[in-house]
Specification:
Helix content is 77%, strand content 1%. The protein is mainly α.
Length: 575
Amino acid sequence: MLKMLFGSKNTPEDRIESIEAFGIVYFSLKFQGMLITEDYRLRHKIHVVTNFIFTNIFYYSSFIIQLFFVNNLRQLLENIPMNICVTACSIKFLVILRLRPSLIEMNKQLKCLDSRPMTDKQKDKLRKEIKFCRIISSVVFIFYLGVNFAYVLAAALSHGTKLGFEMWFPYDWHKNAFRYWLSLSIQAVFQQQLALQNVANDSIGVLYLCILSAHLQIIMERFAHIHYDPEKTEEETLQDFIRYLEDHRVIMDLFEIIQKTLSFTIFIQFITSILVFSTAGVVYLRFSPSSTETAAVFIFMVAEISEIYPSCYYSNKFMEKTDQMVFMLYSSSWMDLSPKYRKYLIIFMQMTQEKKIILAGKQIPITLTTFMSVIFQQQLAVQDVANDSIGVLYLCILSAHLQIIMERFADIHHDPEKTEEESLQDFIRCLEDHRVIMDLFEIIQKTLSFTIFIQFITSILVFSTAGVVYLRFSPSSTETAAVFIFMVAEISEIYPSCYYSNKFMEKTDQMVFMLYSSNWMDLSPKYRKYLIIFMQMTQEKKIILAGKQIPITLTTFMSVMKAMYTVLTVMNPSE
């Protein structure tokens, strides 16, 4: 088993196989029924189809169904990250399945590169890269399995109160210990299967880039060492140069395969990491998880970061290698060679000046700069959750409490078992609770008025600018989708504030009617006097003003939408 995972230790000194770097990845793919060989038999196809149906369809569906049975916000926030991860895993694994013929062709090309003559120093460097790839993939293998094990362990230590992840079962697993441990075992098995899929999803492109970078470095050194050799004819020297060009072309072809097939999976991973990291962070900050749950959430967040860093690092490394090619060519002893050779060298130098970098979704360059941008975006996303939600959530809760107080007012009536003074005390307590709600409303008004005003201005400008980008230029399908999502996001940032502010205003408008609906005719004149005074006080509309000027209502929301369209029209006049 160890030999299969980490490669043969008895490999002859002069024999190198780059595909040994992918031992762990291919091992994890075997659990899915996927073999990177031309001899792909019917039993393997049945295995991979069965596994995909049970793991990526049935098991995945249980997470989706569970979303309809959540009891509170915490359960929803704990369930969403896993739904996102399982969705992304299924999409990425489907891409990997379709990539199998390309992987076979890539391995053939790598064998051709391995067979090229190398110095002992170059062989040692390549062996070190292969060994490093095996170590890295082993760490990823253990880490991904460890993340799922941490959640299973947290569930096992909960004394049967929760599973590793919230998901739906067609029976009540709380009923007895047997059902609980059966459900947890099923979950553990399928989660480890998803972890094995993710080992391939997140590692295979990184490992290929690492090996390609090593081969590219060898070719660059071979170019740099070309010099005038009196023992060779000009034609023989030119043939060496052409062979090096062929090897360089092979590497670029392999790079294009990675670019075409894996750019979409990496794009999905970027979006997944931002959403999952932010949601997991909210669970940690909003609630009070146990020490085991905190450790599991922390490992989960680190795992999301670790899924995108290797891709950015090795894509950045490959780009740097290609940038060095011109310098390596110029460093060769070209002055001693013939004019014909120099002409070919200049042409090749011109061709290699184009940057070679993988674009996630064919738009976003996968570099360390992008990685840092994603990290900052995750942090900004966590901040935006608070910026855009805290006022809305407070208004939502205040509206619910206000409804309860209104019902308490409406239920006040003459009770023969109570004295007039006791009924009056009930009324006063309702007044006190109403005053507390109004005080909270004033706090929201004073603190969030400016932030919502800024959000209105920001949404109008961003929506209009994004619309101009779409209308004036010809974006690709991916760019169009990104612009559309961005514009919808800007609308979604202001709609909840307008909706719940409007809802709170409607509740306050109903207060007088609810007071009038109470059985006040059976109560004393003293009570009626207080009731009339309170009804006069509640006739003032309670509504948040953005910037202390603009009422935040659904009418204002429609006005903002019209303003977005107006600004868009001004910025993009029809010719």
